[in-house]
Amino acid sequence: MAESTKAILPDQTYSIFQVKSDSEYRLLRFISLSQHQKDAAQFRSRMHDEVVNLFDEVFPDKKAIEDRLKKDGFNVLRGDDGQQVRVKDESMRIAEFGVGFGDGCCWVNGCDTRSLDKLVDWKTYDLVYTGNIPEVMRKHPSELLDSLFRQFNFSYADDYHGRSMSVSDVIVLSQDGKLTSYYVEPFGFKEIPDFLPPENPLRNAEMSMEDDFDMIDGIINNGEKPSVREEMNEYRSMIEAYVHPLPQNKKKDHPDLEH
What we know:
six-stranded antiparallel β-sheet
């Protein structure tokens, strides 16, 4: 359960997140949590094997390491950190190879795969809908989840433009200042921790006084940027307006997977 000091979403609402529609995210559609675990374990094993393979090799510079990893089939990401090389797998997971330096050369000295423990990353999702939780369902989350699945498969609100709810979607309930996230599985729902990251209290304090919202960096008032302020105000207005009641019946011709 992700607990926020300043609610990201309005209280007593549900929000539906769906995997981004871009083609590069296609492998994340309709994937169960157990498959996420298997894919992450395979990626971790592959990185560890590569470290073992390169243990005794030295390279003239970091670029040579990146070229070797590309040759070995890794998708290497650009980065300015001289101490690491970031790589990404087909399911958008990112991990890092550590780089050591000395005597005019460099080498791979390990790998950091801790990020793979977070199976579902909110950065690969879009918020597609937010609605009010009916008062009669506020103490019955399982019934609410089932109701939402039926609603978003067989009938919609006119202003809903997402896909039919199916495996890999995430439903976030915002109640009493707490955010609880549920992953849609092939059968039922699974609560997942910290899908939406808690807001940083220091960042909140700075935003309350900062006159340049493009510089949330621990230094108050770096310089005025009216256009950024206007964008923030517009974003807040959009979020406040982006709350809908539970969808009314609207027949869908081709509902998605059965639940």
